[in-house]
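Title: [Solved] Alpha/beta hydrolase of uncharacterized function (DUF1023) 3D structure

Original question kept below for reference.
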Amino acid sequence: MNLHDLVRWNPDALNDFENELGRCAARVEGVREAVTTQSDCGGRWRGDTHESAASAFVAYATAIADQRDSIRRVQECAILVAPALRMLHAELDATRTAAAASGFVVTDDGTVQPMSGVSAAPADRAGIQARVAALLARATELDDEAAATLSRELDEHHPAGQEQWLWPDGTRTKPAHLPATPEPGTPADAVAQWWRALDERDRTALLAGRPGAIGALDGIPAGARDAANRALLDVERRRLEEVAARLRLELEGNLFGGLFTAADAGLEQTDKKLAALDALDEVLARDDRYLLSLDLSGREAMAAVAVGNVDHAEHVAVFVPGAGSTLQGGLGGYDTQVSALRDEAHRHLGDTSGPGSSVAAVTWLDYQAPQWGWGLAYTERSPVSDLAAQIAAPRLSGFLDGLAASRDGDPDVTVVGHSYGALVAGLALRQGADADAAVFLGAPGIGTDDVRELGLPVGAAFLVEARRDAFADVGTFSGDPSFLDGLTHLPSGEGTSATGEPLTAITGHSSYLQPGSTSSYQVAAVVAGAAGRSAA
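Solution (posted by the thread starter after getting help):
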């Protein structure tokens, strides 16, 4: 196994393979059931000849069941290898990032070479080369174990019911039970401590057996959450497609449609969630994305997607969109904006800090954002009520706490709330969320009339209000923040960057993170810890 092989070893392809094997096993099981059913001949054939035929049918059914179980064991191999491979890929990305920060590049053959024209320390090179060697050793072990498992299925007979699982330590027996997982809402520090105490075998088993639970826990490392939530994506898509098909069949056979059954409303909601999964698939296909949360339990699908690894970045921006936001309607655009914000923050760091600095940016839509239209008729869905924000704030607070708990060393975290998202961010900060700075964009309120209640360092709370943004002046939630002491006002008109590049003005309520704008440039400066380098 060399580095080129590891990069080409695609966990998404393994997931597709696992899904296809599951469908194959289901089809084989259907054949076994049919053979078993036909062995009785509907009670119309009796006698010695029938008994002999029935015995043959039983033997056939047993052989088919063996084939079904063999397919399932290969499927289990793929299920277990895929998340372990994702973690190896995440560690490789982190190693390459660390190498670049130290002036080295990791080549496709696994050697560590100095970058042209960059002064680099030999000790750093040796350390990075050791990390690469250890990574390749683990990848080789994983590859060998997978190959051995597949070979045994070709060469050996495994009796039905003798399930075998592949573990990183070479053990192949299925555990009696999976380790208990922390309850939802467990503090991120406690979750992180629990995860660190698990061995690699238990972690892999949990990723394969309980992806929904692991992906939702704040305090789990980003690579593991991403692997779990991506696995959950496939499960949820199959489930929703089955629900949609059943509802369509029900509607087709009902003269009154969904008038008396609400099937039409159920189908509409299911189709929206499937569209949300489509949007997630499109964004996750972009480079360096991590699916940090996925929750389909509510009216709208919820998720958090990061650009960059939050477990290795020194600076992390968490963007909270506002009312009317949905995954299917806005995630692609939000992801594009936060990616550009991350790039701008990197440029600020290039001006103000040495090598080693890094930035990650998260689109956090892991709450039921209130909706306009019919949403106004329901308190928990209304943009003019703070109830949705009160429900969302603990979720955001737990997520922000988890950014530090899941890693060594606290990152510098900036929460960026737009519109109603500013209220969510403000309430989370009032509850003690772990953040170093906050930027409120077009905020109709931040949930307090005293900036000190946010718990931020003095001078770390910022406000941007664009010209002709009517929503920013309504002051619905604890007053108009424009008049609060302790908020630093950042410009949004035309300007010039520190390097002389022109910056565009924004107007209205929806363009605060528009790439190339003064407001986006200023937010990036806060994210990079370079606030105060104001545009001309």
